[in-house]
Structures are given as structure tokens and as C-alpha cells.
Design brief:
Layout lengths: L13 H6 L5 H9 L9 H7 L1 H7 L7 H23 L8 H11 L17 H9 L7 H6 L1 H9 L6 H21 L4 H13 L5 H17 L13 H10 L3 H11 L9 H8 L3 H15 L2 H23 L4 E3 H10 L2 H10 L3 H7 L2 E3 L2 E3 L6 H17 L4 E2 H4 L5 H11 L3 E3 L2 E4 L4 H16 L3 E2 H11 L7 H9 L5 E5 L2 E4 L27 H17 L2 E2 H12 L7 H7 L3 E5 L2 E4 L20 H12 L12 H14 L2 H10 L9 H14 L19 H14 L1 E2 L1 H8 L8 H11 L12 E2 L4 H15 L7 H14 L9 H12 L18 H26 L4
Antiparallel strand pairs: 1-3, 2-3, 4-6, 5-6, 7-9, 8-9, 10-12, 11-12, 13-14
Helix pairs in contact: 3-4, 4-5, 5-6, 6-12, 10-11, 11-12, 13-17, 14-16, 15-16, 17-19, 21-23, 24-25, 26-29, 26-40, 27-28, 30-32, 31-32, 34-37, 35-36, 37-38, 38-39
Length: 864
């Protein structure tokens, strides 16, 4: 511990100084929590301890490097101001010189020791002694405060005699003289100040009073050392001057190694070939040149301009990022200008030290943001790791970081975890093609903000990502594998859960994963089934699913036909022109010829009945490719003599004759027939007890979304969402549930359309958030029980249109019990309803294979 021969600073508690000063919350809390453990309790003890004081305070819990530096500066500022205040108050006259000396010494606190003295004017022996820093000083003010003691210590060091001590004294006199002159002191005042500091010689009262007045002004200059240097010099100028000191060959080697003029750094091999020497010889030349350029007499001015320009240069390279990951460090360093790279190599022992000088090391990189601390990042990292265990991926970053400081969360995520991000989404530990595809699909679908047909979705996807040949099959597999992001509505219609990521990073070539992005190819067996299905349709024309599968089974001669449904839905080659009918695209007739030459598969009583039911329920034209006015005209003409009279009359009653592409006389003729024979006769009551038809919650959500988009929902639309036949009576339970919840407005009859209700959005949000969080919806979940509670409350309201209070009570009881299975009615189910479930199983198997592959890769990797 250094001993101060001068009068001691005033006996003031450190906690009192902090209490009455404007300090950071971190410093105040750390000192308050460790009041009984402080290594020094008074300002006097702290000042006498010199450099050791700050180091010992660094051992306190929750007191980091910045807080320790803040405390050190605060105490020395206090001592200076206290000296000035004591001189302005009555007290012993003999204390004034000591207080002024301490105030003068504290002016040099910002000067680093021994760097401030290594300016090239001192001998090599003294320079080496100072570099070793056996005195353990960190600032020039500490040297001056205990100057006489330091001199005696130096004399006891090996290789440092009286001549070196005298040289140090002369150097300090010169340096302080220059600074006092730069700060505005005249020669007499500067000499008086130096005698007071170095010789403890009190100045005259006049000079003492002048110094007391000047000290507060000097403290506000905040230019302790830079005022001595040439502020107009740039880093380029200083580096050029250093290069000029080298011999031509050394300069050429250094300039080529750092890419001066060309921006391309040459290798040792390149330069060695030009000089016809070995690589090792070029390395030696470069090392010698760098040693010469990094001499203390050269680097003092370099450090000043470097510290001025380097932060902006580094910010430009990292583009405002709050961190530099270890794997990015070399690349970021190479992107700096040759001048900055060369200066960093001259001033720092290694490049890691250069980056640490701009921030602090934490986990896998360097933190650059001044607003972040290690304690904050450690706390955030705990939350991030907990969310990784709880949340389903991929997920938008803003959802993953919800409630956390964005800057700290991003830094902790990238430096403290193995997770990776893509286009603003957290996607997992590996940026696989499937995860990237999932993200891109969600961005497109969520940006649309409405349910989309999968082919429309893929059209926009391929327009923006032409290098990814994602097929319908690929898209369905990845969307089924992410149920927290995608919801199937009906018949290839999909909806995105949640908004797209707010910070969508532009996709770059390396993000596309082109080497992996080939579509999921069909197996030879599946390709054979696809070809067979196509041949069957070409030979026999459009067919119902059951007939198509039976004919394909005959031709496949015993091969498995379980892939027929998925291939029909996902290959992109097959179309459903009408409910239950499959065809290839060239078999769909143009609308111009449909009225005069309608296709045979259109003219059936089943299609006529379905069309009449759908139009009566306000299903729009275009729901299927041949649900159009032209087909309606052809059906009415055929049904007049070709089907049951009730079906014909019902079809006629809903016909939109004014949209038919016929002549005026023909239209008038059919208007007359409609007035005389048109009456709807296909209404019926539900075939099953509605209370037994409680729907799955994900179908409730799908209906809320569909009703919000279309403004209404019919029993036909509900059957499509449930994946049942269009005329199935199972949808009565779903409609009754939605009416009881207020998501649909009640109607007098269940087979008419129902307008969207006021609470559709409320339940859509509730169920969407639950599905995004858990990846599934269950009546036993918290969201499911909230819906059940709403059903119980609705039962007290009485009948709601065709939905009776007893129906609602039965639905509420089933919901409360957690029963979400429908009454199974095989004859009414859609024959292709199981295909999505089959695809989901396929996606799960593929995911399990990916996990197994990753495990084998990790096990086979060589030990580090």
C-alpha cells in the first residue's frame, strides 16, 4: 500500500458521498447491499490505497467494471471539490495547500499510466521499467499523488537507478508543464502548481488563490491530454507517416498484407513468390516492420486518433449490432479499412484485445452496447433458455422475446444459445430447409391476412423464392408439422396463426439452402400410383373418389393404395371440379361450351341436389370450379326431365337466371318456369341429437376465421370445414356451438346461412393464442374450459333461433367433461378426410428421421 506523505483528505464516509451524488442505480444498489463488507469505508482510506482501491471494490458482489470506474472517478472528483470547498470555508490555514495539491493531482486522473509517459523521449531502460508497471498504478494522478514514495520504490527496483528516476522526474515536469499551459495557466501559475505537486512547496497566497479559481474551470475542459495532440490529423495521415518510416521492402510487405490501395490482402505465399524468398522470410520482414511501427514514441499519437475514429469504423462494419459473435469476429475485422486494421494490430497485443476494448466478453462473443451489463444478460439468458424449453419453433422473434429488453434479448440469444434465426423467426438449433420453408410460407400466408388456397399461396411463394421448387406436397407437410403457425380450414384452404415477424430480414442467397431445397420426391411406388390415377382419369373421364380408387386398385394389382388420397390432394395434377369428383386439368371444359355441351359428370341427381342445397345456403359461385352460372343453366335444363321433381323445383327456386349466358327470350322463359314451379323442398331437421355433436376446438376456430372472412357461414361450409360430405347433418352441432357462443347470429332454420356474430373475433383470438402456445386445442385446456364456461352461460339465455336451450345445455355438459369427439357417421364422412391425417403422420416420421440423423452426426463428429 502506498503511503501519502501529504495531509490526509477529509474523513468522509464513502456511502455518504454516494448518497448525496447523482450516481447510477447499479452503483448505489451494489454499495448499499455491501455496506458492511466495504474494503474501505472512508474517502481518506480509498485515496491512500491508490490503484488497489478500485481493484478491491471490484470484488464486491454486483459491482462491475464500469461501476468501479464510476466510483473511482466520483471519489477523486469529490476530493477535488472538497478541497475547493474547504478553502472557501473558515478552517486551519495550513490545510489549504494540501487540498489544492489534491485537487491539482485529480486533474490528471484520465491519463493512463504508463502509456502517457511512453512518448519516445525517455530511455529504453526507463520505458521498460514503466511497461513492467511494478508499481501497479493505473493512472498518472496516482503517480503524482504519491510521487515521493514512487521515487523511493523505483530506486529499489532492479535496473532502475538514480539516473532513471531523475529522467522520470524531468519527463513528468515537462508533461505537466505542457498540460498546465494548454489548460490556460500562465508560466508563473504553472511553475507554482508543479512545485506544489512535486516538491510540496506551498505557493504564495496570491498564486494559491489563483489556482483555487482555475481548478473548477480546468475540470470543465474535459481535455486532459488530447489538447496536446494535433486534433486535425486523421488516422490515414498518421498511418501514412508511420509507413514512411519503413524501408521500401518493409513498407511494400505491410501494404500488401493489409491491402492498401487495392483492398485485397495478399498472403505470405503471394508476396514470397514475387521476392523469390520463403514465406517465413516474409513473415519475419512483416513482424520486424510492425515492431518498429509500434514503438511507444510512435503509438501515442496513433492511439488518440485511433480512439477517435475506430468506434465509428466498427459501427459501420457491424451495422449497429449490439454484439460481435466469435465466429463473426474475423470477418468483421477483415471488413475494416486497412488503416484501422493496421492500427489495431499496432496498438493491441491481439485482435481479441482490440474487440474487448470496445466492449466486454460474454459467452460466445463481445458485447458492444454500453447499455448492457453481464448481470442483465445473465438474467435475460435464463428467460430465453426457459422459453426455448416451453415454446414451439419456429416462432417470430418479437413473440419469443416478449417482455424482454429487445437489445438485451437479441444479444443473449445470439451469444448465449445455439439457436439460430431466419427472417425474423427463431427456428431452432439448425437452419434446415424444412424450417426455412416453414418460415417463408408463414410470412406469405400471414401477410395475406386471410385464408388462401394452397395453390394461390404457392404462386406468391414461387414468385418471391424462385430457387425453391416447393410443391403442394412439400408445403402441406411443413404446415402440418407446425400446427402452432398454420390452420387448415377446408379443401386445401389454409390460414396463418399470428402475424408475420415484424423484423423480416431480407433473404440472401446463402439463406435459401439451394443445395437442399429439392422438393420431396415421390417414392417409385407413389409415382406409379400417380401415373395410374392419371391414366384411369384419361381413360374413363372424371370419377368419384371411391370409383377412382377402386379402378386404380385393379390396375395396380395388389399394390398399396393408401397413398391415393394424399397424391390426389398434393401432387398438383388433379382437380376437384365438383364435390367428390376428381379430374385432370385438361378434362375441365371451358365455361363457354358448358351450357350447350355440359360434361356428363355434372348431370347427376346428386350434383343437382348438392348444388341446390349450397345455393339455398348462400354458398357463392366459384366454391368449386364448375359451381358457376353456366353449369347452373345446364343442370336446370337436364333436371327438368332427368331427376326427381323436388330436386328440380328446389334447384329452380335458387337459380340466378339473370346471370345465365342465354338470350333474353330464353331468360324470360326460365323466369316464368321459376315463378310457376320453383319452390325449395330439401329442408330437413338434423338427423342426430345436436348435443352429441360437440365439435373439436380447432374446427370451432376454423369456423370463426371463415365466418369473419366471408361474413357468414352455412351448414354446407361447416361440413367442408369438418371434412364431411356437403349434405352431412353433423355440422348441426358445430353451428349450434357457434350460435351459443355468439360467433354466429341465430337463424330460424339450420340449413340457411348464418351471419357472423359479434364474438367471432373474441373466440378466434382466444383459440389462436392457445394453439400458437400449445400446438393443439383441447376441451380440457384452459382455453377449452373458457369456451365451455361461455356455453354454460349461454344456456341461461333460452332458445337462440333453431338452437334450443336444451341443445346448449347438452353441448355445455359435453364440453365441461372435455369430450371433443364427434358422432362418427361413416356414410356421411368425406372419403378423402383421412388424407391430411396421413400426411401429418408422414411429416412426423420425417421429423423423427431428421432427429435421428442429427444424433448420429453428433455422435460421429470428432471430439474437440
Amino acid at each position: 500500500m502506498l503511503e501519502d506523505e501529504g495531509p490526509a483528505p477529509p474523513e468522509t464516509l464513502i456511502v455518504d458521498v454516494i448518497k448525496h451524488s447523482d450516481v447510477s442505480v447499479r452503483l448505489a444498489n451494489a454499495i448499499a447491499a455491501a455496506t458492511s463488507e466495504l474494503p474501505f469505508t472512508t474517502v481518506e482510506q480509498y485515496v491512500r490505497a491508490g490503484a488497489q482501491a478500485k481493484d478491491r471494490f471490484l470484488r464486491l458482489r454486483n459491482l462491475g467494471r464500469r461501476s468501479a470506474e464510476e466510483l473511482d472517478q466520483l471519489i477523486h472528483d469529490f476530493v477535488s471539490c472538497e478541497a475547493r470547498d474547504l478553502l472557501q470555508t473558515p478552517g486551519p490555514v495550513e490545510q489549504r495547500p494540501a487540498m489544492v495539491r489534491e485537487a491539482l493531482v485529480s486533474l490528471f486522473h484520465a491519463l493512463d499510466f504508463p502509456e502517457v509517459l511512453l512518448d519516445g523521449t525517455i530511455s529504453t531502460r526507463l520505458a521498460n521499467t514503466l511497461k513492467e508497471n511494478a508499481l501497479q498504478l493505473s493512472s498518472f494522478s496516482e503517480l503524482l499523488r504519491d510521487y515521493r514514495f514512487v521515487q523511493s520504490r523505483l530506486l529499489r527496483l532492479q535496473n532502475c537507478g538514480r539516473k532513471s528516476v531523475a529522467e522520470l522526474h524531468a519527463t513528468c515536469l515537462t508533461l505537466t508543464g505542457k498540460l498546465f499551459t494548454a489548460w490556460g495557466l500562465n508560466e508563473l501559475q504553472a511553475n507554482a502548481a508543479r512545485r506544489l505537486i512535486f516538491d510540496d512547496e506551498p505557493p504564495s497566497d496570491a498564486h494559491l488563490s489563483e489556482l483555487e479559481e482555475l481548478i473548477p474551470l480546468i475540470r470543465h475542459l474535459a481535455l486532459p491530454y488530447a489538447s496536446l495532440e494535433t486534433a486535425t490529423e486523421s488516422l490515414t495521415t498518421v498511418i501514412s507517416a508511420l509507413l514512411e518510416r519503413l524501408v521500401p521492402r518493409e513498407r511494400d510487405v505491410v501494404e500488401r498484407r493489409y491491402g492498401f490501395g487495392t483492398g485485397i490482402s495478399c498472403t505470405l505465399e503471394d508476396i514470397a513468390g514475387d521476392y523469390a524468398v520463403t514465406r517465413e522470410r516474409i513473415r519475419q520482414i512483416e513482424a520486424k516492420a510492425l515492431r518498429r511501427m509500434s514503438a511507444p514514441r510512435h503509438t501515442r499519437g496513433l492511439r488518440i486518433v485511433f480512439d477517435s475514429e475506430a468506434p465509428a469504423a466498427l459501427d459501420a462494419v457491424v451495422q449497429g449490432a449490439s454484439y460481435i459473435a466469435d465466429e463473426q469476429r474475423s470477418a468483421n475485422f477483415r471488413r475494416l479499412s486497412p488503416e484501422v486494421r493496421l492500427a489495431a494490430d499496432l496498438l493491441y497485443r491481439d485482435r481479441d484485445a482490440f474487440f474487448r476494448s470496445r466492449g466486454f466478453r460474454w459467452h460466445g462473443g463481445i458485447v458492444l452496447a454500453e447499455a448492457l451489463s453481464k448481470k442483465d444478460l445473465d438474467s435475460i439468458l435464463k428467460v430465453v433458455k426457459a422459453r426455448r424449453r416451453e415454446m414451439l419453433l419456429p416462432v417470430p422473434q418479437e413473440h419469443f422475446f416478449d417482455g424482454l429488453d429487445p437489445l438485451g434479448a437479441t444479444t443473449a440469444f445470439h451469444l448465449g444459445t445455439d439457436l439460430v434465426s431466419f427472417r425474423g423467426y427463431i427456428i431452432g438449433e439448425r437452419a434446415s430447409v424444412r424450417r426455412k420453408r416453414t418460415v417463408r410460407l408463414h410470412v406469405h400466408l400471414a401477410t395475406a391476412g386471410r385464408p388462401l388456397d394452397i395453390r394461390e399461396l404457392l404462386a406468391t411463394y414461387h414468385a418471391s423464392t424462385p430457387d425453391d421448387p416447393c410443391s403442394v406436397r412439400d408445403a402441406i407437410i411443413v404446415m402440418l408439422d407446425a400446427p402452432h403457425l398454420f390452420l387448415p380450414i377446408s379443401d386445401g384452404i389454409w390460414f396463418a396463426l399470428g402475424p408475420p415477424a415484424l423484423h423480416d430480414e431480407p433473404a440472401i442467397a446463402e439463406d435459401l439452402g439451394l443445395a437442399e431445397s429439392a422438393p420431396a420426391a415421390l417414392s417409385p411406388e407413389e409415382d406409379s400410383i400417380r401415373s395410374t390415377l392419371r391414366n384411369v382419369l384419361i381413360d374413363r373421364g372424371p370419377l368419384r373418389f371411391v370409383d377412382l380408387r377402386a379402378e386404380a386398385a385393379k390396375r395396380l394389382r395388389g399394390k398399396a393404395t393408401s397413398s391415393v388420397g394424399p397424391i390426389l390432394l398434393t401432387s398438383g395434377e388433379f382437380i376437384r371440379p365438383l364435390p367428390g369428383i376428381y379430374a385432370v386439368s385438361e378434362q375441365i371444359p371451358s365455361l363457354a361450351i358448358v351450357p350447350g355441351d355440359p360434361p356428363r359428370f355434372l348431370l347427376t341427381e346428386e350434383q343437382a341436389r348438392w348444388f341446390a342445397m349450397a345455393r339455398y345456403a348462400s354458398e357463392p359461385f366459384g366454391r368449386y370450379p364448375l359451381w358457376v352460372p353456366e353449369a347452373e343453366y345446364a343442370l336446370c335444363r337436364w333436371a327438368q326431365t332427368g331427376c326427381d321433381p323436388v330436386t328440380f323445383q328446389s334447384l329452380l327456386s335458387v337459380a340466378s337466371i339473370n346471370q345465365w349466358p342465354v338470350s333474353a327470350p330464353e331468360r324470360a322463359h326460365w323466369e316464368h318456369i321459376k315463378r310457376t314451379h320453383g319452390r325449395y323442398g330439401l329442408l330437413s331437421t338434423p338427423r342426430y341429437a345436436v348435443g352429441q355433436l360437440l365439435p373439436p376446438l380447432d374446427r370451432v376456430l376454423a369456423c370463426c376465421i371463415a365466418a369473419k372472412h366471408d361474413g357468414r357461414l352455412s351448414w354446407i361450409g361447416a361440413n367442408r370445414i369438418l371434412k364431411y360430405r356437403l349434405d352431412a347433418h353433423v355440422s348441426a352441432g358445430l353451428l349450434a356451438t357457434l350460435i351459443a357462443l355468439g360467433a354466429l347470429n341465430p337463424a330460424p332454420q339450420w340449413q340457411v346461412t348464418h351471419a357472423c356474430g359479434a364474438r367471432a373475433t373474441e373466440f378466434a383470438v382466444l383459440l389462436s393464442e392457445s394453439l400458437q402456445s400449445d400446438g393443439e386445442l383441447s376441451w380440457n385446456s384452459t382455453a377449452g374450459q373458457k369456451v365451455a364456461s361461455a356455453l354454460r352461460s349461454a344456456g341461461a339465455q333460452g332458445d337462440l333461433g333453431w338452437v334450443t336451450s336444451s341443445m346448449i345445455a347438452e353441448l355445455a355438459a359435453a364440453a365441461q367433461a372435455g369430450s371433443g369427439r364427434q358422432l362418427i357417421v361413416p356414410e356421411e364422412s368425406d372419403e378423402t378426410a383421412s388424407t391430411y391425417e396421413e400426411l401429418l403422420l408422414e411429416a412426423q416420421r420425417a421429423h423423427e428421421m431428421d432427429l435421428a440423423h442429427n444424433t448420429l452426426t453428433a455422435l460421429s463428429a470428432p471430439a474437440q
